[in-house]
């Protein structure tokens, strides 16, 4: 330093002393130690190095954090995938158990189906115009919703023999095409009865504007399918649950399970419609198959789904479009079930076949295709086809159900659309 109060750096001593106070720590005066022991000189290089080290530590910590987050994300994805696989395996196990239970229940049913040869104990003569009455059949609550008229026990003599072949069990397959194919294969495996005529069936010709409704019964051709390999066998779709209105309170509705097989648990005479002509199909016996799956429901035609929904609400009053939409959603979700009823041909009654054709010829000759008696809509009535043979018709004029009885043997009407049929015997 010079004598003029200037330091060797060219700064005044008082300014230098003032600035150095900012870079040296002042010791606590009560320690009794010199101030030089507590003061360290300011070093920019050390500060810069410390800053660089801190930056490196921060970068390293952020990298470690990102690595941990990435590993946690991978672990979460792996756990989620494993959970989905476990849930899928659990569902498959449950479906396999359910399919095994259904298969075990169904496997015993085809074994009980029988081939039957039909022989009528009396001779069938030509029909006459004489009309006789018959007592009204007893009321049956199980057939209230579909208008089915129960009959007495049939007097048709049927000789039965056991079916030796076992039908294939239908597994639980997701694709509806596979399900339909296997169901048809099961029907094709059913044996055929003897006595079916080799030549083509003769149609029952009914002129315009008369319908088979006025001759035998009415139907819609939407919910019955025939096996392509063996047209003698088929299956039909019908609701498992139906909605009805409380007769005392018209705003109160209730759901109830119905007897989906009904009288067709016994041998039943069936008719079907093809290209506007009615044919006698033979004697059929129904058995329960697997219910329709939701995927099969999705591939049904709109006409078929509407027919099933209409049948579901047949006994309900004041049905609005919103109600029909809600019922359709319940079917699509699987809350409402559609029963699949197998139709096995177990016989062919030649006397019935000849009598129906003779009745059609007689009606064509006389021009009387309908009963001239005035009957209000929806009223069951009974008209004899032939009083000598004992064939009688139990009909509902505006309904979808027909019960024809040759001496009280059950008869159903099956109507066919372009690719589908509808059975009215259930």
What does this protein look like?
The strands form 4 sheets. The protein has a 7-stranded mixed beta sheet with strand order 3-4-9-8-7-13-14. A 3-stranded antiparallel beta sheet has the order 10-11-12. The chain has 8 helices and 14 strands. The protein has 2 domains: 34-112; 113-423, no CATH class. With 426 residues, it is α+β, with helices and mostly antiparallel strands. InterPro entries: DUF6697.
Roughly how much helix do the residues carry, as a percent range?
25-40%
Strand content: 15-25%
Q: In sequence order, what are the helices and strands, one letter per element?
A: HHEEHHEEEEEEHHHEHEEEEE
The Cα radius of gyration reads 43 Å
Q: Strand order, biggest sheet?
A: 3-4-9-8-7-13-14
Distance between the termini: 125 Å
Uncertain segments: 15-31, 35-39, 110-171, 212-221, 372-426
How many beta-strand segments? Answer: 14
Structural class estimated from helices and strands:
alpha+beta
Quaternary assembly: single chain
- The total of helices stands at 8
What is the number of domains?
2
Mean pLDDT: 66
What is the makeup of the main sheet? 7 strands, mixed
Shape: elongated
Organism: Serpula lacrymans var. lacrymans (strain S7.3)
Protein name: DUF6697 domain-containing protein
Keywords: Coiled coil
Short characterization:
This protein is α+β, with helices and mostly antiparallel strands. It is built from 8 helices and 14 strands.
Topology:
Elements: H1 13-20, H2 44-112, E1 114-119, E2 157-162, H3 176-188, H4 212-215, E3 224-226, E4 234-239, E5 241-245, E6 253-257, E7 268-274, E8 277-288, H5 294-299, H6 302-312, H7 321-333, E9 338-347, H8 350-366, E10 381-386, E11 391-395, E12 402-406, E13 410-416, E14 421-423
Parallel strand pairs: 7-13
Antiparallel strand pairs: 1-2, 3-4, 4-9, 5-6, 7-8, 8-9, 10-11, 11-12, 13-14
């Amino acid at each position: 330093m010079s004598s003029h109060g200037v330091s060797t750096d060219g700064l005044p001593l008082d300014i230098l002393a003032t600035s150095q106070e900012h870079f040296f720590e002042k010791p606590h005066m009560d320690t009794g130690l010199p101030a030089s022991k507590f003061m360290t000189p300011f070093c920019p290089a050390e500060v810069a190095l410390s800053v660089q080290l801190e930056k490196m530590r921060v970068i390293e910590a952020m990298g470690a954090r990102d690595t941990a987050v990435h590993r946690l994300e991978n672990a979460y994805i792996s756990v989620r995938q494993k959970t989905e696989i476990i849930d899928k395996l659990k569902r498959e196990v449950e479906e396999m158990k359910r399919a095994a239970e259904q298969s075990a229940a169904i496997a015993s049913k085809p074994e009980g189906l029988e081939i039957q040869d039909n022989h009528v104990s009396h001779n069938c003569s030509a029909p006459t115009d004489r009309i006789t009455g018959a007592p009204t059949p007893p009321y049956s609550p199980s057939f209230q919703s579909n208008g089915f008229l129960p009959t007495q026990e049939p007097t048709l003599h049927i000789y039965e023999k056991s079916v030796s072949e076992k039908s294939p069990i239908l597994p639980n397959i997701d694709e509806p095409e596979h399900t339909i194919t296997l169901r048809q294969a099961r029907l094709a495996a059913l044996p055929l009865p003897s006595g079916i005529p080799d030549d083509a069936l003769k149609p029952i010709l009914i002129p315009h504007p008369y319908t088979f409704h006025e001759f035998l019964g009415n139907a819609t051709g939407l919910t019955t399918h025939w096996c392509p390999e063996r047209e003698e066998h088929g299956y039909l779709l019908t609701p498992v649950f139906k909605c009805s209105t409380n007769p005392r309170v018209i705003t109160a509705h209730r759901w109830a399970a119905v007897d989906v097989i009904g009288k067709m648990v016994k041998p039943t005479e069936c008719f079907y419609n093809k290209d506007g002509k009615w044919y006698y199909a033979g004697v059929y016996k129904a058995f329960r198959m697997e219910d329709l799956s939701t995927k099969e429901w999705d591939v049904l035609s709109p006409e078929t789904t509407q027919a099933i929904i209409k049948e579901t609400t047949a006994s309900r009053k004041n049905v609005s479009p919103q109600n029909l939409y809600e019922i359709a959603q319940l079917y699509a979700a699987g809350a409402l079930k559609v029963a699949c009823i197998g139709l096995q041909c177990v016989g062919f009654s030649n006397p019935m076949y000849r009598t129906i054709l003779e009745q059609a010829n007689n009606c064509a000759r006389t021009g009387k295709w309908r009963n001239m008696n005035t009957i209000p809509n929806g009223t069951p009535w009974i008209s004899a086809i032939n009083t000598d043979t004992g064939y009688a018709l139990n009909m509902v004029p505006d309904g979808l159900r027909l019960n024809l009885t040759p001496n009280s043997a059950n008869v159903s009407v099956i109507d066919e659309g372009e690719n589908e049929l509808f059975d009215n015997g259930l």
